[in-house]
Automatic annotation (TrEMBL):
Top-level taxon of origin: Eukaryota
Pfam family for this entry, one: DUF247
Keywords: Membrane, Transmembrane, Transmembrane helix
Protein name: DUF247 domain protein
Source taxonomy: Eukaryota, Viridiplantae, Streptophyta, Embryophyta, Tracheophyta
Transmembrane segments: 193-216
Length: 221
């Protein structure tokens, strides 16, 4: 028993050292990156800067991607089902990953931590449900939010997993021009009726300008 405990402590020490090396490596990838880069934004924060959610239509945990642009930005997430057994399932998988008998990439820990960072409030869960990313068979949206918050207490993820996605989100979030354009596009072109109304307003403005122009400067005879 004592030998087994010492082995666990030894493996934890080795893993902790590797984790610190990975964090330093990630931070060193970009000169603008700092410790604050190691945090995510929740769904409401992303939505506020024009980042939309999209389902990858798969359940592979690595199917997370971010695509930014001038007029829109999209965060793609895999589908996930949350039920009464999800808490036990995640805890068992996390415990399995923490087992000192073998090395792994801590994919479950990293994914659960990523989702927890996106989910702070029931509104975040509601947004994920509306996009077909999260299907719940567990009470209310608040129960789902609490589930992720509780599971991820003191949980450490691999900083290299999803780092590129996090970096892209950070760059988009800090770029005010992209944010303003994305917000405007989302506000005025989010539905066919909004596009029609905007087009009609532009046409009316152009016709008014033409009418005013010919009134001031009538065509020469």
């Amino acid at each position: 028993m004592m030998k087994w405990s010492l082995n666990i402590l030894k493996r934890m020490k080795i893993w902790s050292g590797k984790l610190n090396d990975k964090i330093k490596k990630c931070i060193g990838k970009n000169s603008k990156t700092n410790i604050q880069m190691l945090t995510y934004r929740n769904i409401q924060d992303l939505k506020a800067v024009g980042i939309r959610l999209k389902s990858s239509m798969t359940q592979r945990l690595r199917d997370i991607d971010f695509c930014g642009g001038w007029f829109s930005a999209e965060l793609t997430l895999p589908m996930i089902i949350v039920s009464n057994s999800s808490a036990h399932t995640f805890r068992n998988l996390i415990a399995y990953e923490m087992c000192p008998d073998f090395e792994n990439d801590y994919g479950i820990c990293s994914f659960v931590t990523f989702m927890d960072s996106l989910i702070d409030h029931p509104e975040d869960v509601k947004e994920l449900r509306s996009k077909g990313i999260l299907a719940k068979c567990l009470g209310s949206d608040e129960d789902v939010a609490n589930l992720f918050n509780i599971i991820c207490t003191d949980l450490v993820a691999d900083p290299e997993i999803y780092f590129e996605v996090r970096l892209k989100i950070h760059d988009h979030y800090c770029n005010k021009y992209n944010t303003w354009i994305a917000q405007g596009f989302h506000t005025y072109f989010s539905s066919p009726w909004a596009i029609i109304a905007f087009t009609a307003a532009v046409i009316a403005l152009v016709l008014t300008f033409i009418q005013t122009w010919f009134t001031i400067q009538p065509a020469s005879k």
